[in-house]
Amino acid sequence: MATTLQANPRTDLTGSATRQIRKDGHVPAILYGNKIESKPVYVESVEFLKTVREVGKNGLFSLNVDGSKHQVMIHDVQIDPLKNEYVHVDFFEVDMKSEIDADVPVRLTGEAPGTKEGGVLSHLLYDISVKCLPNDIPEEIKVDVSGLNIGDSIQITDLRDKVSVDITNEDEETVVTVQPPTVVEETDEEADSNEEPEVINQDDSDSEKEE
């Protein structure tokens, strides 16, 4: 496997030691799997970020711990929302011969004709769940919207024959739709204000004065 990330064991699991790891520019993590015991580790934060960018959300890579390499994928990442820093990572060792579940991001392609008529393109499902061998997990699932007019939609059932892996979502789940344009109803006050004012005939006004 081309991409390798170096990890080091964590022996001190106290809160102070964990905070020091983060202070030193590392990310606390855990390595686990169906055939191994859980092992606390830590990785260098910059190298971890490079790995994520290189392999993607569901990418496989090698985690090197004390000279032992484990084929893993990132199962979960915790991020501090205020500092925008990695807090903790879960590395899951995969069995390359066993199917696993994964969430694959959806990418819309093309331009829906319905939007040119005032329709609103609504992307409802951003990830699709699949089950397949680790090496077969797609990086993304492309959904072409170029055939959608107002009122049309694409559901999971429409994608099954277009994706090479097994989709575990329900058939009726909607991925994307083109909604009709929103019509704002005019209130009574607005209607009254839009009416033209009554024009008084000048001749009639003058005749009333003479009388």
From TrEMBL:
The keyword Transmembrane helix does not apply. The keyword Ribonucleoprotein applies. Residues 171-211 are annotated as: Disordered. Transmembrane segments: none annotated. Residues 185-211 have a biased composition (Acidic residues). GO terms for molecular function: 5S rRNA binding; structural constituent of ribosome. Residues 175-184 have a biased composition (Low complexity). Pfam families: Ribosomal_L25p, Ribosomal_TL5_C. One of its GO terms (biological process) is translation. It comes from the Bacteria. Keywords: Ribonucleoprotein, Ribosomal protein, RNA-binding, rRNA-binding. Part of the 50S ribosomal subunit; part of the 5S rRNA/L5/L18/L25 subcomplex. Contacts the 5S rRNA. Binds to the 5S rRNA independently of L5 and L18. This is one of the proteins that binds to the 5S RNA in the ribosome where it forms part of the central protuberance. This is Large ribosomal subunit protein bL25. It comes from Alkalihalophilus pseudofirmus (strain ATCC BAA-2126 / JCM 17055 / OF4). The gene is rplY.
